[in-house]
Model the fold of this input.
Amino acid sequence: MKSQKDVLVTDLPARLSDIPWYWADMTPDAPALRDSTVAWSYAQLGAAVEAGVALLRDLDVRPGDRVMVVGENCAAQVALIFAAAAVDAWVVIVNARLSQREMDVIRDHCGARRVIYTIAPSSDAVAHGERHNAAPVNAGPLGDLAIGPLNVTCAAEPVAASNGEQVAVLIYTTGTTGHPKGVMLTHRNLLFIAASSSSLRAMTSNDRVYGVLPISHVFGLAGVMLATFYAGACVYLVPRYSPEALLNALEHDGITVLPGVPAMYARLLEMSNKSGISPKVSKLRFTYAGGAPLDPTLKSEVEKLFRQPLHNGYGLTESSPSISLTRLDAPRADTSVGQVIPGVEIRIVDSMECDVHDGKTGELWVRGPNVMKGYYREPELTASVMRDGGWLNTGDLARQDPDGALFIVGRTKELIIRSGFNVYPIEVESALNSHVAVTQSAVVGRLVADGNEEVVAFVELDPQQNVTTTVLHTYLSNMLSPYKCPSEIVIMQSLPSAATGKVLKGQLKKMAQQMFDK
Done:
C-alpha cells in the first residue's frame, strides 16, 4: 500500500480485500493478526480470506447481497469482512452483545441473504445463532461458525463500477428512537480513512496495535483494523475490554499503538489508582482517544500514567469515521480534536447556514472522500443530513481557532436552553469530571414548564471515594455560572453505554424526564 501524508483517492485499491492479498504477496511471513486462538501471518490471513470467499459462494451469496456477521472481535470476523468485499457483497457487522430486539431489527431492515455467527469467542453469538436456527459448521481456517438459513426473498443491490460508489459495509448506528440507521460506507470511504489514519500515525510494519475497540463500530473497523493492515502491521484482537488484560498486553506483547475511547482509559486509571500498578510501556509510542469527548482531567491523568501525549480525534459513523486528528509532531495540551485530515473540507455555519468566523461556535459540516453514500433504504433520512454540494451536516457544534485546531462544543440536539441561556453539556461534564471522586459523567436536558429546560447530571463515582450529591453541587457552584449548574445530580453505579463505551444519552434523557414527570 502506498504511504503518503496527502492520501490521493486515485491511489487507493479497488476493494478492501486488496489489502490482505497485497501483503500476502509482499510480506507473506510477516505477522498480521492475533486473537485468543490464532496467530496469522499475512499469508495465512490471505488464505483465510480465500476460504471465506469459497464459503460465501457455497452459501449462495451473490454480488450486492447483504451478509450479516454477528460476533465479537476475532480472526474469523476479519476474514469474513474481506471475503464479502471480494465478492462485492455488503457486510453488515453487528456486535453480538446487542439485545434480541436490536439484532432482529437490523437483520430485518438490511434483508440479509445470510447471517453468519462467529461463535468461538462469543457466547452471545452462540445464543443469537441458536435463536435464529443457525447450523454449526467448521469452516477450516475460519474455525467454528454458525450459519443462518438462506433468505430467498433477499434482493441483491446493483454492483457499482467504482469503489467510490460500491458499498462495502453497512454500519448500524446507536439510535435513541429505535429507528434503524444503516450507514452505507463504500470501499473508497473506508480505504481513504485506513490510508489517512495509517499515514498520520506514521504506522509501519513494525507496529503492534491493540484491537479492543469493536470492529462492529466504524472506529474499530476503519481507524484500527483497516489502518493496521494498510500499513502491513499486526493487530492484536480482543473481544472485550479489561484493564488487567491491557496491562498484560502492554508488558508482554510489545504493543506500540493503543487506540481507545475515554471510558476505557477511565477504567484503567481507576484500576491503577486502586492497585498502585502502573503500565509498562517500553514499546508504546502512540496513544489515542476518540469516539466520545475527551475530558481535560482524564487527558492529563492518562498522560501522567503513560508518560506520553494522549492524542485526540473526532469523527462519526457517517464520515467513516475520521474528520480530524491531532498531529504526532504537534501534540496539544488542550482537548482540541486536532487538525482536519488532508483531503477533507469543513464548514462551520450559523442557523442561517452562513459561515461563521473568528472562532465562533456553529454547526459543523464536512465534505470529502470519507462521507457516506447515505442511509440504507432511508432517502428522507439521508436528505435530512446531506446538503447541496456533497456536504454532510454532522449535527455537532464546533469552533475553529486561527491555527486550524478544531474544538467540538457539543451536539446540536444536546444543546440545553435554560432560561434563555445556552448550556453545552460537555462544559458541565468537564467540570464534574475534574472532581477526584467522579469517574465519568453525562449531562442531559429535561423539559419543564413553558418550554424551559433543566440541567440534569448523571455521575459514576470511584467506589473508593465517599462523596454526596451535596458535595458535588457545592463543587460545581465554585466552577460554573449558576445557570450551568445541574438542577439534579444522579449517582449511578455505571452509566449505560454501547459496546464501544459511548454513553447512551438517549436513555439518560428518558430517565431524567420520567423522574420529573413523576
Q: What stands out?
A: The first strand starts at residue 31 and ends at 34. The two ends are 59 Å apart (CA to CA).
